[in-house]
Design brief:
Blueprint lengths: L10 H32 L1 H4 L5 H8 L4 H16 L3 H7 L4 H16 L6 H10 L5 H11 L8 E4 L5 E4 L4 H16 L7 H28 L10 H4 L8 E4 L4 E11 L5 E9 H7 L8 E5 L4 E5 L1
Antiparallel strand pairs: 1-2, 3-6, 4-5, 6-7
């Protein structure tokens, strides 16, 4: 096969030669499908000792699993709809879209839903010039369960395959994180890299928040707007009192005792916030509220 030194081509020549190469590639794909169709018809794969066309394509022709299945799907569909060969050659349909279509049809067959030749033609018309993802959205509107739910498959000792269905929000978040990675120099981050980076950032932020909360608790100060008893703080190291701003809240139910002006104590067993303490202790002025802390118990007190 004659090779071309592409570096010596002008810009216009390079673009022209690329378009020709793509056309040759599409023609070659159709040629491969013709050959596979005849090999299946003659069952030549069995004569070579293979149990299936898939085994023949992966082990003898050295296609990877996904590439082999895409070509087998396209070959079998072309038996029923020969016109898809022209769509493949023109680029109106891709192997991946045809593969998704065949997967959809197999699922529908399992549900006892049969599609006529005309119905299949109409469905394929709807997904012409679409990407695989766009085509699967069309099929999913008809049968959402046709496409894989979340699944983890162990590949080897250190790797697993994670399969999930991503909604539009998740895809937008992935695209946003991908753009950020590209700005930092990673021109083509994988989905694995994108997910790792996003999770690391989220976990780091959560860890820093937890450390900040812990530091506040150890200093005996509960910040305004605290949302849990941990944020209000289980103060340690001999801290005996901690000021809580009146608008602080605690989602944990704690036992509290509040002394009135006469020195008598009244208590509720399930105050849920400093605001609840304030509401229960009805005085002309707004009391300041403290937390008295010991190793074993915590109580709210009016100053």
């Amino acid at each position: 096969m004659k090779t071309i030194d592409v570096k010596k081509l002008s810009n216009s020549e390079l673009l022209e030669q690329t378009e020709k190469a793509v056309l040759v590639e599409r023609e070659s794909t159709n040629l491969v499908l013709d050959h596979l169709r005849e090999i299946q018809s003659r069952r030549l794969y069995a004569r070579l000792g293979f149990s299936s066309m898939f085994e023949y394509c992966t082990q003898h022709l050295k296609y990877c699993n996904s590439s082999a299945q895409l070509r087998i799907d396209a070959m079998r569909l072309s038996l029923e709809l020969p016109e898809i060969k022209e769509s493949l050659e023109k680029g109106d349909l891709s192997l991946s879209v045809i593969g998704s279509f065949q997967k959809f049809v197999r699922h529908e067959n399992q549900r006892k839903k049969k599609y006529s030749r005309e119905e299949k033609q109409e469905l394929l018309k709807q997904v012409e010039n679409k990407s695989r993802v766009e085509a699967e959205k069309v099929f999913a509107e008809i049968a959402p369960e046709a496409f894989p739910k979340e699944k983890i498959r162990v590949l080897n000792g250190t790797q697993s395959e994670l399969r999930l269905v991503a909604d539009e929000e998740l895809m937008e978040l992935i695209a946003e994180m991908k753009a950020k990675l590209q700005q930092k120099g990673n021109t083509d981050p994988s989905y694995a890299e994108i997910i790792k980076c996003g999770l690391r950032k989220a976990l780091k932020k959560e860890k820093n928040r937890a450390l900040s909360t812990q530091a506040s608790a150890e200093n005996g100060f509960a910040r305004a707007g605290a949302t849990s008893s941990e944020e209000v703080g289980s103060a340690k190291n001999g801290v005996s009192k901690a000021f809580v701003r009146p608008n602080s809240t605690s989602s944990a139910e704690v036992k509290v005792g509040v002394k009135n002006a006469a020195g008598k104590t009244f208590a509720r067993s399930s105050f849920t916030s400093a605001a609840a303490v304030k509401a229960s202790y009805k005085q002309p002025r707004t009391p300041r509220v403290y937390i008295s802390v010991s190793e074993k118990k915590t109580a709210f007190h009016r100053a």
